[in-house]
């Protein structure tokens, strides 16, 4: 039969006692009961295993394809997921990040150490669900403090069947990704699965050459009717007249891209990624937007063909995946970057005016500028690595950016690009 020993630890106000000895005055001693607990002892006097713990135990693992195993604590959904691990350097905007469809098939590691402090609200969602495979963070904030918060991050991930882990060394993993490049990995809360089994799962997972946009695209056309709320509007010239009709191809489009276009006076019809170019042209749009989206642009040749059929017939604007598809349609090539660009703090130089913009970015692929035919202008360059960040082909009324000008999350430096698209459509109307 196990014996039980009680422990009662008391602390005195030693500074008060010391002061009393110096002044010969009675000490104002405060007595606090700090810990009072019971420890079960076995028959031989050793402590028995405690059933209840005052902290959450390590109950999850991140296993990378290089064979490394990182113990962690879980939040959100449970189970086992496989994906590509990338790191994001944004300090804010984790809700926009986890609802960005461009992260489909990936685990997002946040380099900002404390995540969850502003909770979750329903205004900052960039899509109707979480498309990423999981979230990796250093410290999960236990308290939520924000006047807009309607819930907690952990509850939100659980409701969206998305895994999360914390209390893991995110700095060490980030250094590894920067050195070795993006790595495939497995998140698991299932103790029955051995490390070797999870490593094999990571190594056999493939994201290159896989069509990732079909699963995140809408299945039927729809009209975008939401407006940018006035309290979040920062560059509106009062254009309530929907004078431009835009068809937006949904490769994983973010809501705020549509809000920004609507704020500039566009009536928008969103169509699926497989929507035929001939049907789009029947709508007689003033312009076509090819949106952001996840995965390998070379794995969706049908989308490249759609872009080709649109060139020269209507002004075109491409963002991220749309930029990469335009690069291929114009005769260029794309390649997979070492660890991609993911964050809200990437400096980009606009080569047309010399202006440096701080941009929000999220992509693993880039257009090779050397492969582009003559006449195509590289308009923007990423100052971190010199990669192509924007294209223009004035002869065909084409413009594109490799990053996110809609500022969700991120700075507003690049918002003027939506006005540039408006000017392109105005010019098209004049020449029609």
TrEMBL record:
Pfam families cross-referenced by the UniProt entry: CPSase_sm_chain (PF00988), GATase (PF00117)
InterPro entries: CarbamoylP_synth_ssu, CarbamoylP_synth_ssu_N, CarbP_synth_ssu_N_sf, Class_I_gatase-like, CPSase_GATase1, GATASE
GO cellular component: a single term: carbamoyl-phosphate synthase complex
Superkingdom, taxonomy of origin: Eukaryota
Molecular function GO terms recorded: ATP binding; carbamoyl-phosphate synthase (glutamine-hydrolyzing) activity
SUPFAM superfamilies, per database record: Carbamoyl phosphate synthetase, small subunit N-terminal domain, Class I glutamine amidotransferase-like
Substrates-to-products reaction catalysed: L-glutamine + H2O = L-glutamate + NH4(+)
Entry keyword Amino-acid biosynthesis: yes
Pathway where it operates: Pyrimidine metabolism; UMP biosynthesis via de novo pathway; (S)-dihydroorotate from bicarbonate: step 1/3; Amino-acid biosynthesis; L-arginine biosynthesis; carbamoyl phosphate from bicarbonate: step 1/1
Carbamoyl-phosphate synthase small subunit N-terminal domain: residues covered: 58-188
One GO-annotated biological process of the protein: pyrimidine nucleotide biosynthetic process
Enzyme class (EC, first level): ligase
EC code: 6.3.5.5
Record key words, sorted: Amino-acid biosynthesis, Arginine biosynthesis, ATP-binding, Glutamine amidotransferase, Ligase, Nucleotide-binding, Pyrimidine biosynthesis
Ranges in coiled-coil conformation: none
Keyword Acyltransferase set for record: no
Family membership noted in the UniProt record: Belongs to the CarA family.
Record's function text: Small subunit of the arginine-specific carbamoyl phosphate synthase (CPSase). CPSase catalyzes the formation of carbamoyl phosphate from the ammonia moiety of glutamine, carbonate, and phosphate donated by ATP, the first step of the arginine biosynthetic pathway. The small subunit (glutamine amidotransferase) binds and cleaves glutamine to supply the large subunit with the substrate ammonia.
Quaternary context: Heterodimer composed of 2 chains; the small (or glutamine) chain promotes the hydrolysis of glutamine to ammonia, which is used by the large (or ammonia) chain to synthesize carbamoyl phosphate.
Name this protein carries in UniProt: Carbamoyl phosphate synthase small chain, chloroplastic
